[in-house]
Specification:
- This protein is of the alpha/beta class and 325 residues long.
- It folds into two domains: 163 residues, 3-Layer(aba) Sandwich (Rossmann fold), CATH 3.40.50; 140 residues, 3-Layer(aba) Sandwich (Rossmann fold), CATH 3.40.50.
- It is built from eleven helices and 15 strands.
- The strands form three sheets. It has a seven-stranded mixed β-sheet with strand order 1-14-7-6-5-3-4, with helices on both faces. Strands 9-8-10-11-12-15 form a six-stranded mixed β-sheet, sandwiched between helices. A two-stranded antiparallel sheet has the order 2-13.
- The longest helix is centred in the N-terminal third of the chain and has 17 residues.
- The two termini are 18 Å apart.
- The N terminus is likely disordered.
- Bound molecules: alpha-L-arabinofuranose (AHR).
- The site of alpha-L-arabinofuranose has 13 residues, from helix 2 and strand 11.
Length: 325
């Protein structure tokens, strides 16, 4: 099924507090180029590279000066980058937090400096939610549910048959790992024959996904029927491990993953992956607009979500030429 991808405003609270009310910030001088400090998680996946490219291109297009820092999947590097943006007195800080917790102190520092903060892609757990102005990103719990529902439908074709599932989780403590696990478990609960027998982090990378899948396969105590990978890169790494173990990915082991990057479509066309749930990384244009509105003191939505689709292998060949990432 192909779904039209549009950003929609979340139903939750309209952030009526303007920038000046929330942060007491001075509105940037008219005509002065807006400066954004952006701290990116890293370059761990195809998804992340597409997200970075979208942000850089959109900043250029919008005439926004972008100070970009790659945190190499380390929270301490993100904290350093945010502090450096504060010292440089940027107009707005945006970041995709590698993990959910541990942000209170640095976000309070940003507030004290009167610099508004926008979250992109991933959420944070903070004591005071007004420490950030808005959050633009996917609904990861729903992505997990979509993956689980796809499996439920497939399992319903062979009622009563037990399926052993192994799970490759994303980065420990990250919003997508926590939420996708939660959504998937919530959906598969409807069929007690579907059981997760092993679950471990593959850190959202191909190399680690392969390594952990090799360990799952070596255990040999229980047959593995299904792999649920929290992203396509780990699924692609796992596919290699499955092939090296003399099994057929997509046939001997059903593979479900998330992101819907080109690499996943290629794997589906080759019959090695069964389904991918979309997670849209092209957040750049919306982020730049939000930044402009926030700095101009306009009201913005508290939560901006992305509507995304599910792509089973049957539609892969037709959809592949349309994929932008
Ligand atoms: O936060 C989004 C996730 O981060 C993507 O699913 C994954 O590929 C990336 O590394």
């Amino acid at each position: 099924m192909m779904m039209k991808k549009t950003m929609k405003f979340g139903r939750r609270t309209l952030l009526l507090a303007t920038l000046s009310a929330a942060f007491g910030a001075a509105v940037a001088a008219p005509g002065a180029p807006l400066v954004m400090g952006f701290s990116q998680v890293g370059a761990e996946s195809e998804w992340r590279s597409a997200n970075t490219a979208s942000i850089k291109a959109a900043a250029k297009e919008a005439g926004i000066t972008l100070k970009f820092a790659d945190a190499q999947q380390k929270q301490e590097n993100q904290v350093k980058a945010i502090r450096s943006f504060i010292a440089q007195k940027v107009d707005v800080i945006a970041f995709s937090p590698v993990v959910e917790s541990g942000w209170d102190t640095v976000l309070k520092e940003a507030r004290a400096a009167k610099i508004p903060v926008i979250l992109t892609d991933r959420a944070v757990n903070v004591s005071d939610p007004s420490l950030y102005v808005t959050f633009i990103g996917s609904d990861f719990v729903e992505e997990g549910r979509k993956a689980g529902r796809w499996l439920l439908e497939r399992a319903a074709k062979n009622p009563g048959v037990a399926l052993n599932i192994v799970e490759l989780q994303g980065t420990v403590g990250s919003a997508p790992a926590i939420d996708r696990k939660k959504g998937f478990e919530e959906a598969i609960k409807a069929n007690p024959k579907l059981q997760i027998i092993r679950s471990q982090s593959g850190e959202f990378t191909r190399a680690k996904g392969k390594e952990v899948m090799e360990a799952f396969l070596k255990a040999k105590d229980k047959k593995i029927d299904v792999l649920f990978a929290h992203n396509d890169d780990m699924a692609i790494g796992a596919i290699q491990a499955i092939e090296e173990a003399g099994l057929k990915p997509g046939k001997d082991i059903t593979i479900i993953s998330i992101d819907a990057v080109k690499g996943a479509f290629q794997a589906m066309v080759a019959g090695k992956l069964n389904v991918t749930v979309e997670c849209n990384p092209l957040l750049g244009p919306q982020l730049m607009q939000l930044a402009r509105d926030v700095v101009a003191g306009k009201p913005v939505e508290r939560r901006v979500t992305v509507i995304e689709g599910v792509f089973p292998a049957e539609v892969a060949a037709k959809e592949l030429p349309n994929r932008k990432y």
